[in-house]
Amino acid sequence: MASSFWLAASSLALILAAVVPQVTTQESFCSAPNGQDGHPGVPGLNGRPGQKGDLGEPGASGRSAGVRGPKGDPGEPGVPGIPGNKGFRGPDGPQGPPGERGDQGLKGQVGNVMHQARAAFSASRQSPEPNGNVVVFDHIITNQDNGYSGQRGVFTCKDPGYYYFSFQVVSAGNLCLILVHKDTKVATFCDDNSSSFLQVNSGGSVLKLAAGDTVWLESDPEAGNKVYEGPDADSVFSGFLLFPSSV
To answer: Which of the residues 23, 170, 186, 202 could staple to 228 if both were Cys, CB 3.0 to 4.6 A apart?
Structure first.
């Protein structure tokens, strides 16, 4: 009965709305209460696929849950690289132990004294030509290999080695003699003779000579030194090779 009443009232309202002009003021408006929600509709169709989204941030590394396998076989050797720079020399190591004694060598040939150097000379004074302060022994007694010059009073070494030189010089007064090697005074020999008698000033020395070295005796006449020159006694200067050397 109530439903029929509300249906008749709704129809009457529609007819009046069509015939009577509507009044838009608030005072003439009459609102009905909201109706109840209807039943849910049928689900619609799926929409079209959307656009591809932006690349996301990298995720955290996951832990491997697998078991580590056994070590594999060695691979083939690679191509040799370029040699590096030479390093600095390291410190010398300790000296090693002595080696074993070697076999005895073959017996050498017998030496021949004829093939060895045999430099030797001896000369006396007779009538020498002056040569500064050099005491010249002009008369040659022995001159093996012609190493001594009777004109200059100088011995020139041809075979390097050790030589012995000696002299016996006669004087009638004070006399100082100097043995000279390559312009260097080696030794000085002086004899004080206040009498007028003849006496001998003698001396000697061993010198090591190289090829081309020179040796002589000298004296200074201006200092009162005078070598006797006469038939009563001879002054002699001698020298010879003791043994050769490599230098």
So the answer is: 170
